[in-house]
Specification:
By secondary structure, the chain is α/β, with parallel strands linked by helices. It has helices at about 15-25, 45-50, 65-75, 95-100, 125-140, 170-180, 205-220; strands at about 1-10, 30-35, 55, 80, 105-115, 150-155, 185-195. Helix content is about 35%, strand content about 20%. A seven-stranded mixed beta sheet has the order 3-2-1-4-6-5-7, sandwiched between helices. α1 (about 15-25) links the parallel β1 (about 1-10) and β2. α6 (about 170-180) runs parallel beside α7 (about 205-220).
């Protein structure tokens, strides 16, 4: 079974299209779980009306905590993550599913192997992503192109769930580290990234960038 876990904070303008797009792209059996991370708008209501199961956090806790909550609530043996802001294309979910073959434990939808549409990423954010990916590859001997991508698929048994502790945007780094630490293979497939047309990202530079880098460094020395 595939469980799609979506962390959402004040994404009422986009969450319905994301949920409906995900439902249209998924094979059976599946579930779509939206974790409403303390939104002050109608994100939870809109997501529920679009067909998602919704778990609501009373206050905003951060993407990492929201996704960890969703993982704990999810029933599937495959976990698919997609951002709630509409920048990922749910119709490309089959690409990730097709990539999960053999010994592959995680498939990342790489924006940098695929297409970045106009306005999809700023010059500063692109440079930051490329630096963090370079640092991850140096520290962990990998050859990835987009370690911070939120659009990804992972086998539940490839994760050490009790040891997940990310609070914010370091969650993608932590998920990848768990897979590699347990001997799983990570594959990338090209995907399309669109611009954000509604709302604003909660990513704060350089605070979140330093959190991500620290997660990589700590993960290099943990058993």
């Amino acid at each position: 079974m595939i469980s799609v876990v979506i962390a959402a904070f004040n994404e009422s303008a986009t969450i319905a299209d994301v949920v409906r797009g995900v439902l249209a792209a998924l094979p059976d059996p599946h579930e779509v779980l939206v974790v409403d991370d303390g939104s002050t708008d109608e994100t939870a209501l809109v997501a529920r009306e679009a067909g998602a199961r919704v778990v609501t956090l009373p206050v905003n806790r951060g993407k990492g905590e929201a996704l960890r909550t969703g993982i704990g609530e999810a029933a599937g043996d495959l976990l698919l993550f997609i951002d709630a802001d509409g920048q990922d294309d749910p119709s490309e979910i089959p690409r990730l599913l097709e990539g999960l073959d053999g010994d592959t434990a995680m498939v990342i939808g790489s924006r940098f192997r695929g297409r970045l549409l106009d306005g999809a990423i700023t010059v500063v954010n692109r440079a930051g992503n490329q630096f963090l990916t370079f640092a991850f590859n140096v520290l962990h001997g990998s050859h990835l192109t987009d370690t911070q991508a939120g659009f990804r698929l992972v086998r539940r048994d490839a994760l050490d769930l009790p040891r997940l502790r990310a609070r914010r945007y370091e969650i993608e780094t932590e998920l990848t580290l768990h897979v590699l630490r347990r001997g799983g293979q990570v594959k990338e497939v090209p995907v399309t990234r669109s611009r954000r047309d509604h709302g604003a990202s909660g990513f704060f530079r350089p605070y979140d960038g330093l959190r991500i880098l620290w997660c990589m460094i700590i993960g290099r020395f943990e058993p």
